[in-house]
Amino acid sequence: MSKIFSNLGLAMRAGKLVTGDEIVLKSVRSSEARLVIVAKDASANTHKKFRDKCRTYKVPLIIGFDREMLGSSVGKPERVVLALTDQGFADMIRKEIVKTSEVEYIE
């Protein structure tokens, strides 16, 4: 699982990851987002909003981990939602996600 977080940090340093509700929604709408990750401890409204948007725009969505883990992996305080904007990083994360039980929902 630490490989997932180190890859998220690497994507952040490479400028291939965006965080924050509005910025992630904008990247989903503009088809820049390749993978969206929402913290499992986010509100039900946030889960529904990103589930619906990602389904509409056909962007893969993962709900899992907690906000502290996501934030610390990208060198920021708590983060509820992240979007990878590079297909290579998205593929690396998705391959590692299959191996973990921390994830509640994958689409």
UniProtKB/TrEMBL annotation:
Keyword Cell cycle: no
Tagged with keyword Ribosomal protein: yes
Domain Ribosomal protein eL8/eL30/eS12/Gadd45 positions: 3-90
Cited Gene3D superfamilies: 3.30.1330.30
GO cellular component, one term: ribosome
Gene Ontology molecular functions: RNA binding
Superkingdom of origin: Bacteria
Pfam families, per database record: Ribosomal_L7Ae
Annotated protein name in UniProt: Ribosomal protein L7Ae-like RNA K-turn-binding protein
Alphabetically ordered keywords of this record: Ribonucleoprotein, Ribosomal protein
